[in-house]
Amino acid sequence: MSLRAVLLITLQREPGTGYDILQRFKAGLAHVWQASHQQLYRELDRMRGDGLLTCETLPQTERPDRKVYQLTEAGRQALDTWLAEPLSTSPVRQPLFAKFFAWERWPEEARRKEFTAFRKQLQERLTTYAAIEREWFSNPETLTPAQRAPWHTLRLGKRLTETWVEWVEEVMEED
Amino acid sequence: MSLRAVLLITLQREPGTGYDILQRFKAGLAHVWQASHQQLYRELDRMRGDGLLTCETLPQTERPDRKVYQLTEAGRQALDTWLAEPLSTSPVRQPLFAKFFAWERWPEEARRKEFTAFRKQLQERLTTYAAIEREWFSNPETLTPAQRAPWHTLRLGKRLTETWVEWVEEVMEED
DNA sequence: CTGTCAAATGCAACTTGTTGCATAAGGCTA
DNA sequence: TAGCCTTATGCAACAAGTTGCATTTGACAG
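ok -> structure tokens follow
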């Protein structure tokens, strides 16, 4: 259901095509949700089938046609219903932690590589966050509550990632 | 693949039945991996089919039979292969963040309820962590590296959860 | 002039995870 | 004595996510 909800949210803010949404996923929405183009196109078509979206095909010369999706009244209602009901907790799945539980069989070199690569990923993520913050939230005091909300999510993402980095570095140092 | 890996790890430490593993999942492994009994039984049977596990049926009077699974050599090898190769990054999926992106349509009351329930979950998680810490890691200095590793995962879990709690409280206060 | 990238869409097969239901016997509680 | 909990296993249908492949045109690099 959650992919649906995310699509309802982005299309409610602004109608668009599968490709558009993919770009949004790569930009600011990247720390909220990620999905492949296959998944998007399939889900959009299903949502249209379920009456949550309308689809308008804009023919283009020199390019494949664009299919612009837009919320219907049923779509807006579905979104409101989803917002109103509390989220269920998602199951814990931490493959990295699993490796820690097999410490004896985990070769030292592989371990080091894993930690290094992982820290690099985390630091790249921090760079991305910083870029988003600069571009969209340069002065947080002037934001409206609705604009402030996504800023909060970014702040948390940053703090969590920092916590991860500290931890990996501690583990690496000790190892 | 990761569920497989987790099963290989737990069964390598000690052979057991699907039900046993389910209990381990509820106890110390709960902050690493969670899965339903249906998933476990199905996966165990497939792994046996793939030659990673052997299965011995212990008949019990007055109870359904127990099927004790144990790693084969191929199973140990599969585990080592998995440990040696670096983990791929898992896609971001944060339904709560998604709601923040629909702030205007998210009714205040639903928001408050969500935050309160969420904070409660986080605090319960912290309680669980504390219990695990008391039971298994009461004096960390005396641990061997292999015992120390899962303790690290617990520490990170704790810190991340604390970060979440701080954040939710900030957001609640501001809202 | 060949290859790759970007724009734009999609199908098909597969794996993974969820939900609902089922069985069977003993113990415990109202 | 009826109903639920625990032990112990599973099937079947479905939903969600992944992987591999395919199409069309223009632009740009080597």
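Residues 1, 3, 35-36, 38-39, 43, 62-64 of chain B lie near DNA strand C (CB under 10 Å from a C1').
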